[in-house]
Amino acid sequence: MTLKEIFSIGLYHGYIPQILLAEALFTLKLRRRDNFPGRLLMGLPVYLVMSVAVPNIVAHYVSGWFSITIFALSLILCCFLFENSFTDILFCCVCAQLTQNLSYNVENL
To answer: Within 10 Å of residue 14's Cβ, how many Cβ atoms?
Structure first.
Protein backbone atom coordinates (compact mmCIF):
# COMPACT_ATOMS: atom_id res chain seq x y z
CA MET A 1 0.00 0.00 0.00
CA THR A 2 1.50 3.32 -1.06
CA LEU A 3 1.46 6.59 0.83
CA LYS A 4 -0.84 8.05 -1.83
CA GLU A 5 -3.37 5.26 -1.23
CA ILE A 6 -3.17 5.71 2.54
CA PHE A 7 -3.93 9.43 2.41
CA SER A 8 -6.39 9.40 -0.48
CA ILE A 9 -9.74 10.98 0.31
CA GLY A 10 -12.78 9.31 -1.18
CA LEU A 11 -16.53 9.66 -1.13
CA TYR A 12 -16.86 7.77 2.15
CA HIS A 13 -14.70 10.32 3.95
CA GLY A 14 -17.70 12.67 3.89
CA TYR A 15 -18.71 10.81 7.05
CA ILE A 16 -15.95 12.59 9.01
CA PRO A 17 -17.42 16.12 9.15
CA GLN A 18 -20.91 14.68 9.62
CA ILE A 19 -19.94 12.69 12.71
CA LEU A 20 -17.90 15.61 14.10
CA LEU A 21 -20.87 17.95 13.79
CA ALA A 22 -23.24 15.44 15.38
CA GLU A 23 -20.80 14.80 18.24
CA ALA A 24 -20.39 18.55 18.78
CA LEU A 25 -24.15 18.79 19.27
CA PHE A 26 -24.28 15.97 21.80
CA THR A 27 -21.18 16.92 23.80
CA LEU A 28 -22.09 20.55 24.48
CA LYS A 29 -23.02 19.86 28.10
CA LEU A 30 -20.10 17.55 28.95
CA ARG A 31 -17.40 18.78 31.34
CA ARG A 32 -14.39 19.93 29.38
CA ARG A 33 -10.89 18.98 30.46
CA ASP A 34 -8.38 21.62 31.52
CA ASN A 35 -6.94 23.58 28.60
CA PHE A 36 -9.81 22.50 26.33
CA PRO A 37 -8.98 24.94 23.50
CA GLY A 38 -5.38 23.72 23.42
CA ARG A 39 -6.50 20.10 23.49
CA LEU A 40 -8.94 20.80 20.66
CA LEU A 41 -6.30 22.58 18.57
CA MET A 42 -3.93 19.66 19.12
CA GLY A 43 -6.41 16.78 18.92
CA LEU A 44 -8.51 17.82 15.93
CA PRO A 45 -5.70 17.88 13.32
CA VAL A 46 -4.39 14.57 14.63
CA TYR A 47 -7.89 13.13 14.45
CA LEU A 48 -8.40 14.40 10.89
CA VAL A 49 -5.16 12.86 9.64
CA MET A 50 -5.81 9.60 11.48
CA SER A 51 -9.43 9.43 10.29
CA VAL A 52 -8.23 9.57 6.69
CA ALA A 53 -5.25 7.22 6.99
CA VAL A 54 -6.37 4.52 9.45
CA PRO A 55 -9.70 3.65 7.76
CA ASN A 56 -7.93 3.43 4.40
CA ILE A 57 -5.43 0.98 5.88
CA VAL A 58 -8.13 -1.05 7.64
CA ALA A 59 -10.36 -1.09 4.53
CA HIS A 60 -7.43 -2.42 2.50
CA TYR A 61 -7.36 -5.56 4.66
CA VAL A 62 -10.88 -5.88 6.09
CA SER A 63 -14.11 -4.99 4.32
CA GLY A 64 -16.91 -3.12 6.07
CA TRP A 65 -14.96 -1.51 8.93
CA PHE A 66 -14.60 1.98 7.46
CA SER A 67 -17.16 3.93 9.50
CA ILE A 68 -16.54 1.85 12.64
CA THR A 69 -12.89 2.87 12.53
CA ILE A 70 -13.75 6.56 12.15
CA PHE A 71 -16.28 6.25 15.00
CA ALA A 72 -13.65 4.66 17.27
CA LEU A 73 -11.19 7.45 16.49
CA SER A 74 -13.82 10.11 17.25
CA LEU A 75 -14.61 8.35 20.53
CA ILE A 76 -10.92 8.52 21.46
CA LEU A 77 -10.91 12.23 20.58
CA CYS A 78 -13.94 12.84 22.82
CA CYS A 79 -12.27 10.97 25.70
CA PHE A 80 -9.23 13.23 25.19
CA LEU A 81 -11.39 16.38 25.29
CA PHE A 82 -13.95 15.66 28.01
CA GLU A 83 -13.58 14.48 31.60
CA ASN A 84 -16.92 12.72 32.02
CA SER A 85 -17.04 8.98 32.54
CA PHE A 86 -16.41 6.73 29.56
CA THR A 87 -20.03 5.58 29.56
CA ASP A 88 -21.29 9.20 29.36
CA ILE A 89 -18.95 9.93 26.46
CA LEU A 90 -19.86 6.65 24.75
CA PHE A 91 -23.56 7.47 25.13
CA CYS A 92 -23.09 10.89 23.50
CA CYS A 93 -21.02 9.41 20.67
CA VAL A 94 -23.55 6.65 19.99
CA CYS A 95 -26.37 9.20 19.96
CA ALA A 96 -24.33 11.28 17.52
CA GLN A 97 -23.78 8.20 15.37
CA LEU A 98 -27.50 7.48 15.29
CA THR A 99 -28.29 11.11 14.47
CA GLN A 100 -25.72 11.17 11.67
CA ASN A 101 -27.08 7.93 10.24
CA LEU A 102 -30.67 9.16 10.40
CA SER A 103 -29.85 12.48 8.73
CA TYR A 104 -27.84 10.71 6.03
CA ASN A 105 -30.74 8.36 5.27
CA VAL A 106 -33.26 11.22 5.24
CA GLU A 107 -31.01 13.13 2.85
CA ASN A 108 -30.90 10.10 0.52
CA LEU A 109 -34.69 9.87 0.46
So the answer is: 10
